[in-house]
Write a structure and sequence with these properties.
By secondary structure, the chain is mostly helical. It has 13 helices and six strands.
Length: 364
Protein backbone atom coordinates (compact mmCIF):
# COMPACT_ATOMS: atom_id res chain seq x y z
CA UNK A 1 0.00 0.00 0.00
CA UNK A 2 1.16 3.53 -0.69
CA UNK A 3 2.14 5.68 2.28
CA UNK A 4 -0.49 7.92 3.84
CA UNK A 5 -2.85 7.20 6.68
CA UNK A 6 -6.02 8.86 5.37
CA UNK A 7 -7.41 7.68 2.01
CA UNK A 8 -7.94 10.50 -0.49
CA UNK A 9 -9.49 8.34 -3.17
CA UNK A 10 -9.46 4.68 -4.19
CA UNK A 11 -8.35 3.13 -7.46
CA UNK A 12 -9.44 -0.40 -8.28
CA UNK A 13 -8.47 -2.71 -11.11
CA UNK A 14 -7.69 -6.27 -12.08
CA UNK A 15 -4.16 -7.48 -12.69
CA UNK A 16 -3.44 -11.08 -13.67
CA UNK A 17 -7.06 -11.91 -12.84
CA UNK A 18 -6.76 -10.53 -9.31
CA UNK A 19 -8.47 -7.44 -7.99
CA UNK A 20 -6.07 -4.73 -6.88
CA UNK A 21 -7.36 -1.98 -4.62
CA UNK A 22 -5.18 1.06 -4.16
CA UNK A 23 -5.89 3.42 -1.28
CA UNK A 24 -4.26 6.69 -2.17
CA UNK A 25 -3.32 8.64 0.91
CA UNK A 26 -3.21 12.42 1.19
CA UNK A 27 -2.50 13.59 -2.36
CA UNK A 28 -0.57 16.53 -0.97
CA UNK A 29 2.03 14.13 0.38
CA UNK A 30 2.97 13.00 -3.13
CA UNK A 31 3.01 16.56 -4.45
CA UNK A 32 5.26 17.63 -1.58
CA UNK A 33 7.64 14.81 -2.47
CA UNK A 34 8.22 16.51 -5.83
CA UNK A 35 8.26 20.03 -4.40
CA UNK A 36 10.93 19.23 -1.81
CA UNK A 37 13.37 18.21 -4.55
CA UNK A 38 12.33 21.01 -6.93
CA UNK A 39 12.76 23.94 -4.53
CA UNK A 40 16.61 24.08 -4.79
CA UNK A 41 16.30 24.28 -8.59
CA UNK A 42 13.77 27.12 -8.27
CA UNK A 43 15.92 28.95 -5.72
CA UNK A 44 19.29 28.61 -7.45
CA UNK A 45 18.03 29.15 -10.98
CA UNK A 46 15.64 31.92 -10.04
CA UNK A 47 18.15 33.87 -7.97
CA UNK A 48 20.81 33.68 -10.69
CA UNK A 49 18.29 34.90 -13.28
CA UNK A 50 17.09 37.61 -10.89
CA UNK A 51 20.67 38.78 -10.25
CA UNK A 52 21.52 38.96 -13.94
CA UNK A 53 18.33 40.83 -14.88
CA UNK A 54 18.60 43.22 -11.92
CA UNK A 55 22.13 44.26 -12.94
CA UNK A 56 21.53 44.36 -16.70
CA UNK A 57 20.46 47.64 -18.36
CA UNK A 58 16.79 47.76 -19.33
CA UNK A 59 16.31 48.21 -23.08
CA UNK A 60 13.13 48.69 -25.12
CA UNK A 61 12.74 44.93 -25.42
CA UNK A 62 13.44 44.13 -21.76
CA UNK A 63 16.81 43.40 -20.11
CA UNK A 64 19.67 44.10 -22.55
CA UNK A 65 22.60 41.69 -22.20
CA UNK A 66 24.36 42.76 -25.41
CA UNK A 67 26.88 44.87 -23.50
CA UNK A 68 27.11 42.58 -20.46
CA UNK A 69 28.41 39.13 -21.54
CA UNK A 70 29.14 37.99 -17.98
CA UNK A 71 25.59 38.80 -16.88
CA UNK A 72 24.36 36.89 -19.93
CA UNK A 73 26.43 33.90 -18.77
CA UNK A 74 24.90 34.10 -15.29
CA UNK A 75 21.45 34.29 -16.87
CA UNK A 76 22.14 31.24 -19.05
CA UNK A 77 23.31 29.21 -16.05
CA UNK A 78 20.22 30.22 -14.07
CA UNK A 79 18.00 29.35 -17.03
CA UNK A 80 19.65 25.90 -17.25
CA UNK A 81 18.93 25.23 -13.58
CA UNK A 82 15.40 26.57 -13.92
CA UNK A 83 14.68 24.41 -16.99
CA UNK A 84 15.09 21.31 -14.81
CA UNK A 85 12.28 22.38 -12.48
CA UNK A 86 9.39 20.61 -14.22
CA UNK A 87 11.24 17.29 -14.90
CA UNK A 88 12.47 17.16 -11.29
CA UNK A 89 9.02 18.02 -9.93
CA UNK A 90 7.40 15.32 -12.08
CA UNK A 91 10.09 12.72 -11.42
CA UNK A 92 9.97 12.99 -7.66
CA UNK A 93 6.17 13.08 -7.50
CA UNK A 94 6.33 9.69 -9.24
CA UNK A 95 9.10 8.66 -6.84
CA UNK A 96 6.89 9.52 -3.87
CA UNK A 97 4.18 7.19 -5.19
CA UNK A 98 6.11 4.22 -6.57
CA UNK A 99 9.70 4.64 -5.34
CA UNK A 100 12.72 4.46 -7.69
CA UNK A 101 10.98 2.69 -10.61
CA UNK A 102 8.83 5.81 -10.99
CA UNK A 103 11.77 8.14 -11.56
CA UNK A 104 12.39 7.44 -15.26
CA UNK A 105 8.80 7.87 -16.52
CA UNK A 106 8.38 10.80 -14.16
CA UNK A 107 11.42 12.62 -15.55
CA UNK A 108 10.49 11.73 -19.12
CA UNK A 109 6.94 12.99 -18.63
CA UNK A 110 8.22 16.21 -17.03
CA UNK A 111 10.66 16.78 -19.89
CA UNK A 112 7.85 16.33 -22.42
CA UNK A 113 5.64 18.69 -20.40
CA UNK A 114 8.35 21.32 -20.97
CA UNK A 115 8.61 20.44 -24.65
CA UNK A 116 4.90 20.77 -25.36
CA UNK A 117 4.55 23.89 -23.22
CA UNK A 118 2.28 22.29 -20.63
CA UNK A 119 4.03 24.07 -17.75
CA UNK A 120 4.02 23.00 -14.15
CA UNK A 121 0.43 21.69 -14.39
CA UNK A 122 1.64 19.29 -17.09
CA UNK A 123 4.43 18.27 -14.74
CA UNK A 124 1.92 17.46 -12.02
CA UNK A 125 -0.11 15.37 -14.46
CA UNK A 126 2.92 13.45 -15.75
CA UNK A 127 4.27 12.81 -12.25
CA UNK A 128 0.99 11.46 -10.92
CA UNK A 129 0.40 9.41 -14.06
CA UNK A 130 3.89 7.89 -13.97
CA UNK A 131 3.68 7.12 -10.26
CA UNK A 132 0.30 5.41 -10.40
CA UNK A 133 1.17 3.53 -13.58
CA UNK A 134 4.36 2.07 -12.11
CA UNK A 135 2.54 1.24 -8.88
CA UNK A 136 0.17 -1.02 -10.80
CA UNK A 137 2.91 -2.47 -13.01
CA UNK A 138 4.73 -3.57 -9.87
CA UNK A 139 1.66 -5.59 -8.86
CA UNK A 140 1.92 -7.84 -11.92
CA UNK A 141 3.18 -11.32 -11.06
CA UNK A 142 6.26 -12.35 -13.07
CA UNK A 143 8.57 -15.40 -12.94
CA UNK A 144 11.33 -15.14 -10.37
CA UNK A 145 14.09 -15.17 -12.99
CA UNK A 146 12.64 -12.05 -14.66
CA UNK A 147 12.00 -10.16 -11.44
CA UNK A 148 15.53 -8.66 -11.06
CA UNK A 149 15.37 -6.87 -14.43
CA UNK A 150 11.85 -5.51 -13.98
CA UNK A 151 12.79 -2.26 -12.15
CA UNK A 152 15.86 -1.75 -14.36
CA UNK A 153 14.41 -2.45 -17.79
CA UNK A 154 10.74 -3.39 -18.00
CA UNK A 155 9.10 -0.80 -15.73
CA UNK A 156 11.03 2.19 -17.18
CA UNK A 157 10.47 1.20 -20.82
CA UNK A 158 6.76 0.40 -20.59
CA UNK A 159 5.86 3.28 -18.29
CA UNK A 160 7.95 5.85 -20.21
CA UNK A 161 6.30 4.77 -23.47
CA UNK A 162 2.78 5.09 -22.04
CA UNK A 163 3.47 8.38 -20.22
CA UNK A 164 5.17 9.79 -23.32
CA UNK A 165 2.25 8.90 -25.58
CA UNK A 166 -0.24 10.44 -23.16
CA UNK A 167 1.80 13.62 -22.75
CA UNK A 168 2.38 14.13 -26.47
CA UNK A 169 -0.99 13.01 -27.81
CA UNK A 170 -3.49 13.69 -25.01
CA UNK A 171 -1.93 16.55 -23.04
CA UNK A 172 0.34 18.21 -25.59
CA UNK A 173 -1.49 17.92 -28.90
CA UNK A 174 -4.57 20.02 -27.97
CA UNK A 175 -2.54 22.79 -26.30
CA UNK A 176 -1.57 24.64 -29.47
CA UNK A 177 -5.15 24.85 -30.76
CA UNK A 178 -6.47 25.89 -27.35
CA UNK A 179 -3.89 28.64 -26.97
CA UNK A 180 -4.65 29.93 -30.48
CA UNK A 181 -8.34 30.11 -29.58
CA UNK A 182 -7.60 32.00 -26.36
CA UNK A 183 -5.39 34.46 -28.24
CA UNK A 184 -8.18 35.16 -30.74
CA UNK A 185 -10.61 35.64 -27.86
CA UNK A 186 -8.27 38.16 -26.19
CA UNK A 187 -8.05 40.09 -29.46
CA UNK A 188 -11.80 40.59 -29.26
CA UNK A 189 -11.87 41.29 -25.51
CA UNK A 190 -9.23 44.03 -25.48
CA UNK A 191 -11.68 46.55 -26.95
CA UNK A 192 -14.24 45.89 -24.20
CA UNK A 193 -14.63 46.53 -20.49
CA UNK A 194 -11.29 47.26 -18.77
CA UNK A 195 -12.29 45.61 -15.48
CA UNK A 196 -13.31 42.35 -17.17
CA UNK A 197 -10.18 42.36 -19.32
CA UNK A 198 -8.02 43.03 -16.26
CA UNK A 199 -9.58 40.10 -14.40
CA UNK A 200 -9.03 37.82 -17.40
CA UNK A 201 -5.39 38.85 -17.90
CA UNK A 202 -4.55 38.65 -14.20
CA UNK A 203 -6.16 35.22 -13.84
CA UNK A 204 -4.37 33.89 -16.91
CA UNK A 205 -0.98 35.19 -15.75
CA UNK A 206 -1.33 33.55 -12.32
CA UNK A 207 -3.11 30.35 -13.33
CA UNK A 208 -0.10 28.30 -14.44
CA UNK A 209 2.81 30.64 -13.60
CA UNK A 210 4.84 30.58 -16.78
CA UNK A 211 2.85 27.81 -18.45
CA UNK A 212 0.91 28.05 -21.71
CA UNK A 213 -2.01 30.08 -20.35
CA UNK A 214 0.38 32.55 -18.72
CA UNK A 215 2.38 32.88 -21.93
CA UNK A 216 -0.68 33.56 -24.08
CA UNK A 217 -1.55 36.57 -21.91
CA UNK A 218 2.08 37.71 -21.78
CA UNK A 219 2.69 37.47 -25.52
CA UNK A 220 -0.64 39.14 -26.20
CA UNK A 221 0.56 42.06 -24.09
CA UNK A 222 3.92 42.07 -25.89
CA UNK A 223 2.15 42.09 -29.27
CA UNK A 224 0.05 45.08 -28.22
CA UNK A 225 3.26 47.03 -27.52
CA UNK A 226 4.09 46.75 -31.22
CA UNK A 227 0.72 48.33 -31.97
CA UNK A 228 1.33 51.24 -29.59
CA UNK A 229 -1.02 49.91 -26.88
CA UNK A 230 1.03 49.75 -23.66
CA UNK A 231 -1.89 49.27 -21.26
CA UNK A 232 -2.23 45.50 -21.84
CA UNK A 233 1.42 44.91 -21.00
CA UNK A 234 1.06 47.26 -18.03
CA UNK A 235 -1.71 45.05 -16.61
CA UNK A 236 0.30 41.90 -17.28
CA UNK A 237 3.47 43.41 -15.79
CA UNK A 238 1.64 44.13 -12.55
CA UNK A 239 0.05 40.67 -12.41
CA UNK A 240 3.28 38.82 -13.23
CA UNK A 241 5.10 39.64 -10.01
CA UNK A 242 2.20 39.40 -7.55
CA UNK A 243 2.11 35.57 -6.99
CA UNK A 244 5.77 35.21 -5.89
CA UNK A 245 5.78 38.50 -3.99
CA UNK A 246 2.53 37.68 -2.19
CA UNK A 247 3.52 34.15 -1.23
CA UNK A 248 7.01 35.28 -0.24
CA UNK A 249 5.52 37.98 1.99
CA UNK A 250 3.12 35.45 3.53
CA UNK A 251 6.07 33.37 4.73
CA UNK A 252 7.40 36.46 6.54
CA UNK A 253 4.13 37.59 8.14
CA UNK A 254 3.75 34.51 10.36
CA UNK A 255 6.79 32.29 9.98
CA UNK A 256 5.40 29.69 12.38
CA UNK A 257 2.76 28.69 9.83
CA UNK A 258 5.40 27.60 7.31
CA UNK A 259 8.05 24.91 7.25
CA UNK A 260 11.71 25.85 7.07
CA UNK A 261 11.76 24.70 3.45
CA UNK A 262 8.77 26.90 2.61
CA UNK A 263 10.38 29.89 4.30
CA UNK A 264 13.50 29.40 2.19
CA UNK A 265 11.33 29.15 -0.92
CA UNK A 266 9.60 32.35 0.17
CA UNK A 267 12.85 34.30 0.19
CA UNK A 268 13.67 33.03 -3.30
CA UNK A 269 10.13 33.92 -4.42
CA UNK A 270 10.59 37.52 -3.22
CA UNK A 271 13.78 37.84 -5.26
CA UNK A 272 12.12 36.40 -8.35
CA UNK A 273 8.99 38.50 -7.93
CA UNK A 274 11.10 41.65 -7.81
CA UNK A 275 12.27 41.03 -11.36
CA UNK A 276 9.04 39.57 -12.73
CA UNK A 277 9.53 35.79 -12.59
CA UNK A 278 6.09 34.33 -11.83
CA UNK A 279 7.57 30.83 -11.54
CA UNK A 280 8.80 31.71 -8.05
CA UNK A 281 5.31 30.75 -6.86
CA UNK A 282 5.43 27.24 -8.34
CA UNK A 283 6.70 25.39 -5.22
CA UNK A 284 3.74 26.68 -3.23
CA UNK A 285 1.20 26.02 -5.98
CA UNK A 286 2.54 22.53 -6.67
CA UNK A 287 2.32 21.60 -2.99
CA UNK A 288 -1.23 22.89 -2.51
CA UNK A 289 -2.73 23.74 -5.93
CA UNK A 290 -6.40 23.79 -4.95
CA UNK A 291 -5.91 26.58 -2.42
CA UNK A 292 -2.88 28.48 -3.71
CA UNK A 293 -3.91 28.90 -7.37
CA UNK A 294 -7.29 30.59 -6.66
CA UNK A 295 -5.60 32.93 -4.17
CA UNK A 296 -2.84 34.07 -6.54
CA UNK A 297 -5.37 34.41 -9.37
CA UNK A 298 -7.38 36.76 -7.15
CA UNK A 299 -4.29 38.80 -6.25
CA UNK A 300 -3.05 39.08 -9.83
CA UNK A 301 -6.54 39.98 -11.05
CA UNK A 302 -6.76 42.80 -8.50
CA UNK A 303 -3.35 44.14 -9.55
CA UNK A 304 -4.20 43.85 -13.23
CA UNK A 305 -7.56 45.64 -12.84
CA UNK A 306 -6.00 48.50 -10.86
CA UNK A 307 -3.27 48.84 -13.48
CA UNK A 308 -5.87 48.98 -16.28
CA UNK A 309 -8.00 51.55 -14.45
CA UNK A 310 -4.90 53.57 -13.54
CA UNK A 311 -3.77 53.75 -17.18
CA UNK A 312 -0.50 51.95 -16.42
CA UNK A 313 1.51 51.44 -19.60
CA UNK A 314 4.56 49.19 -19.86
CA UNK A 315 6.88 49.86 -22.80
CA UNK A 316 8.97 46.68 -22.27
CA UNK A 317 7.78 43.06 -22.60
CA UNK A 318 8.67 42.26 -19.00
CA UNK A 319 7.14 42.72 -15.57
CA UNK A 320 7.74 43.34 -11.92
CA UNK A 321 9.20 46.36 -10.12
CA UNK A 322 12.34 46.14 -12.26
CA UNK A 323 10.55 47.68 -15.28
CA UNK A 324 9.44 50.75 -13.30
CA UNK A 325 11.73 53.10 -15.32
CA UNK A 326 9.86 52.28 -18.58
CA UNK A 327 6.34 52.34 -17.09
CA UNK A 328 3.75 55.11 -17.54
CA UNK A 329 1.85 56.17 -14.39
CA UNK A 330 4.46 54.77 -12.04
CA UNK A 331 2.52 55.50 -8.85
CA UNK A 332 -0.49 53.43 -9.94
CA UNK A 333 1.86 50.65 -11.06
CA UNK A 334 3.34 50.49 -7.56
CA UNK A 335 -0.12 50.70 -5.96
CA UNK A 336 -1.46 47.84 -8.12
CA UNK A 337 1.47 45.58 -7.24
CA UNK A 338 1.23 46.35 -3.51
CA UNK A 339 -2.55 45.78 -3.45
CA UNK A 340 -2.34 42.41 -5.19
CA UNK A 341 0.63 41.32 -3.09
CA UNK A 342 -1.11 42.20 0.18
CA UNK A 343 -4.27 40.35 -0.91
CA UNK A 344 -2.31 37.16 -1.68
CA UNK A 345 -0.26 37.39 1.52
CA UNK A 346 -3.32 38.10 3.67
CA UNK A 347 -5.47 35.33 2.20
CA UNK A 348 -2.69 32.73 2.40
CA UNK A 349 -1.94 33.65 6.01
CA UNK A 350 -5.61 33.28 6.93
CA UNK A 351 -5.90 29.97 5.05
CA UNK A 352 -2.76 28.53 6.64
CA UNK A 353 -3.81 29.66 10.13
CA UNK A 354 -7.30 28.23 9.72
CA UNK A 355 -5.90 24.95 8.38
CA UNK A 356 -3.60 24.65 11.37
CA UNK A 357 -6.42 25.36 13.85
CA UNK A 358 -8.61 22.72 12.18
CA UNK A 359 -6.01 20.04 12.76
CA UNK A 360 -3.61 20.42 9.82
CA UNK A 361 -0.06 19.23 10.23
CA UNK A 362 2.30 21.57 12.05
CA UNK A 363 5.32 22.95 10.22
CA UNK A 364 8.65 21.41 11.03
Amino acid sequence: MLPGSTPFFIIEGKISGKKVRMKVGNLQKYLLSGVSYAIPFVASGGILIALSIALAPMGPGGPDFSQAPFLKLINDIGTAAFSLLIPVLSGYIAFGISDRPGLVPGFVGGYIANQVGAGFLGGLVSGLLAGFLVFFLKKIKVPSYIRPVMPILIYPVISSLIVGIVMYQVVGAPIHDLMASITSWLQVMHTGNKIILGIILGSMIAFDMGGPVNKVAFFFGAAMIQQGNYLIMGACASAICIPPLGLGLATLINRKLWTEQERDAGLAALAMGAIGITEGAIPFAAADPFRVIPVIMAGSSLGSVLAMLGQVGDHAPHGGPIVLPVVDNKLMYIVSIIAGTLLVAGLMTLIKARSRRSGGSSPK
